[in-house]
Amino acid sequence: AAPGTMPLPPARSWEEYQRRAAERLVAANPGRTYLGPVPEPLLAIPVLDIELERDGRVREIRVRRVPSQAKDTTQLAIEAVRRAAPFGDVSQLPKPWTFTEVFLFDDERRFKPRTLDD
């Protein structure tokens, strides 16, 4: 395999899995994301519950929170998840195979996964 395409070993925890998923969201959505400081105020903060199949494909996306303004960012977040999938094998992790991501949207409708905001 070419360098950088070796599959990662299975994540040992949901915390590790979610961090990798957030990194994948950013990598799969060039030009639609930002890193670095989160602007104040944020444009919108949609929250998604992402349910996975054992191989990391998306089984279902549930909207946990729709922002009060810029409601279109919820659909942008859903599309970003679909572009980034599959997220990798979850069969070794405890069920339910679901994680939650908070999308921090700026005024240019670019997002940062809150998982990477540390």
Distance linking N and C termini: 32 Å
Name of the level-1 CATH class? Alpha Beta
Radius of gyration: 14 Å
Low-confidence stretches: none
Largest sheet: 4 strands, antiparallel
The tally of helices reads: 2
Question: Tally of extended strands?
Answer: 4
What is the topological layout?
Elements (H helix, E strand, L loop, with lengths): L13 H14 L19 E6 L5 E8 L6 H13 L13 E8 L5 E3 L5
Antiparallel strand pairs: 1-2, 1-3, 3-4
Helix pairs in contact: 1-2
Summarize the structure in words:
- The protein has 118 residues and is of the alpha+beta class.
- Helices cover 23% and strands 21% of the residues.
- It is built from 2 helices and 4 strands; from the N terminus they run αββαββ.
- A 4-stranded antiparallel β-sheet has the order 2-1-3-4, with helices on one face.
- A hairpin with a 5-residue loop joins β1 (47-52) and β2 (58-65).
- α1 (14-27) packs across α2 (72-84).
Short précis:
It contains two helices and four strands. The chain is α+β, with helices and mostly antiparallel strands. Strands 2-1-3-4 form a four-stranded antiparallel β-sheet, with helices on one face.
Q: What attributes does this structure have?
A:
4-stranded antiparallel sheet; 2 helices; Fusion Protein Consisting Of Minor Coat Protein, Glycine Rich Linker, Tola, And A His Tag, Chain: A, Domain 2; alpha+beta; 4 strands; 118 residues
